[in-house]
Amino acid sequence: MFVLAMRSIRQRPGRFLATLLSAFLGAVIVMTFNSMHDTAGQPGVDPVSRETLSTAAGVVGGYGTLLVFFAIASTLTVNVRQRAAERELLRCSGATPAQIKRMVVGEAVAVALVGAALAIGPALLGGRALLEVFQDSGQVAQSVEYSFGPVASASGVGITLLAAAGAAFLAVRRATGEGRQRGRARTVLPYAALVAGAASATSTFVFSATDAALMAPPAYGAILLSVGCALRAPRLLAVVLDRLPFDGPSGWLAVRNLRERAGQLAGILMSLILFTAVATATLTMQAVESDAVEASGLVKSVDAKNLETLNFTVVGIIVVFVCVMLVNSLYAATGYRLREFGQQRLAGATPGQVLTLVGVEGLILMVTGVVFGTLAALAGVVPFTVARTDEVLPGEFFGIGAAVVAVAAVVTLGTSLVTARRTLRTPAVGAVAVA
């Protein structure tokens, strides 16, 4: 099966580019920040610099690990679903389900290994640049020298390979129908995340307005609430679709298509919810904190600067990763509909009507993700703002929220429409015949 996996990659390398890109970016992020552990572990590093570097590596490295898994999982799920005919041919040829699993996992691990290897150079440059940022802001001493050692390399390669193997295994189980029966854990986990998120956000009021840890409970609350909503993405999409008042043909067909493909689109919706919630909550709370410190006339401490740097870095990582996940998933999902678009055109639909259909589908997905992501963000922003400034909804929220929505709209609608437009260049008869 490993030989077959290598042959599959060599014959059609294009189908693995999305997975390779996700593995590459994930390994770059994990190696870049875990190299701060190597740097902090050098002899002669002062305690303040060591704490700054270790905190950055621990916090962002943890986020990076989760994002690597989600990014690779989203691309592999689409890849595996699109190869149903190939899997059926292998089974007819005598391959067992276990052998097919090993083939898919082998492909994913091989691609991830290449991505991790390619990431070493950029991670070295990124780690040096990150250290310079900390030194320029006064958070790390100028005498500290950069080190890229075993922690960075081992964690980057190991996490990327484990994420690829795990994501591939789950993707092929879903595609083959195994594990379709929902277990108790999968049922309870979303609600547990929602309850824990609400409890964490509520605990904000236990802290004082000047407490250094004030931002942590609402931030974790928003993240957990967004995770709970993301895990319920197919159900949330179904609820929204049941209440849409579309009467036109494009709207009706878009709702019908989305309802039938709710499970396949769950990864896209999850990405939108997580992106909206984490970016909106983190940036808004940081803006409120910065404005409050400026209004008081105080100077930010080293810990406050560390927190601000981490907040912006985490949001930056999430924006990059979610954009990659969305572009990869939407590109693959829309490009896979070549036959469907060809059939619609043979039935009398014009290219403009097909694009309208794709646009309506993308709009529904985008709005659904933004709405539930914003609700999760508000559950963290409101308690923090009340505790920090005695206001309820800060003015910073509206500008930041609008920027987040704009990014989500550009990525979702732009990718869907551009991919659909490229797909429509194929003649309808040829699209049906080729697919």
Work out the radius of gyration: 23 Å
Number of E-state strands: 0
The shape is: globular
- Percent of sequence in beta strands: under 5%
The residue fraction in helices comes out at over 70%
Termini separation? 26 Å
Organism: Streptomyces koelreuteriae
InterPro entries: ABC3_permease_C, Macrolide_Exporter_MacB
Keywords: Cell membrane, Membrane, Transmembrane, Transmembrane helix
Main location: membrane
Give an account of the 3D structure.
There is one protein chain. By secondary structure, the chain is mainly α. Helices cover 80% and strands 0% of the residues. It contains 16 helices and no strands. The protein is globular, with a radius of gyration of 23 Å. This is FtsX-like permease family protein.
